[in-house]
Sequence to fold (196 residues):
Amino acid sequence: MKVFLATGNKKKIDEISKILDGSNIEILSINDGIEIPEVIEDGNTFEENSKKKALEIAKFTNMITIADDSGLCVEALNNEPGVYSARYSGENATDAENNKKLVENLKNVKNRKAKFVTVMTLGKPNGESYSFRGEVQGEIIDISRGKDGFGYDPHFYVEEYDKTFAEMPEIKNKISHRAKALNALKKGINEILNIG
Ligand code: IMP
Fold:
């Protein structure tokens, strides 16, 4: 069965294709020359955004479509930046600018609890959709550590490993919010598509 992956991010295409390797699902993406319109992510939740993207692109391509939305939620900041993670310090913000704002907003704040969240949605051209959530807990540290990863990784510390996500890319790929959401999707997908 062919499923379209609605992302322009080649790293995500690779990662998701690998996880679904060995299943009955063949992933198609922009790498196969299929162009897709931009979807405005104006929802208040990760669920709303990933569902909107999956359903709009499913309708456009007339294919079953997977889309995702992710971000960082910090407990002491009322779960901000949340759906605004990519543009926390403004449109077209760099990772460095977003991290600077995060650390500034946590100045003198003791509670450093945070989580990364991903919601993956499988949407059908007929309007049906199924969402899967993955979360990973950590703490925000003031001084960045590590060179790998992207986004907030150098400030996202996981006590169990005594490392930030930017210091442990291989472990990150196994325990991350994205890995968990994808594995949940992988478990559910055959049943949803009535195959396997
Ligand atoms: P997206 O929905 O996966 O594109 O993620 C939106 C934003 O959330 C990114 O631009 C990052 O700022 C942040 N983010 C999501 N996942 C991660 C991660 O694994 N590490 C660090 N930052 C992330």
Observations:
- Residues 177-193 form the longest helix (17 residues).
- The domain at 2-192 is CATH 3.90.950.10 (Maf protein).
- The first strand starts at residue 2 and ends at 5.
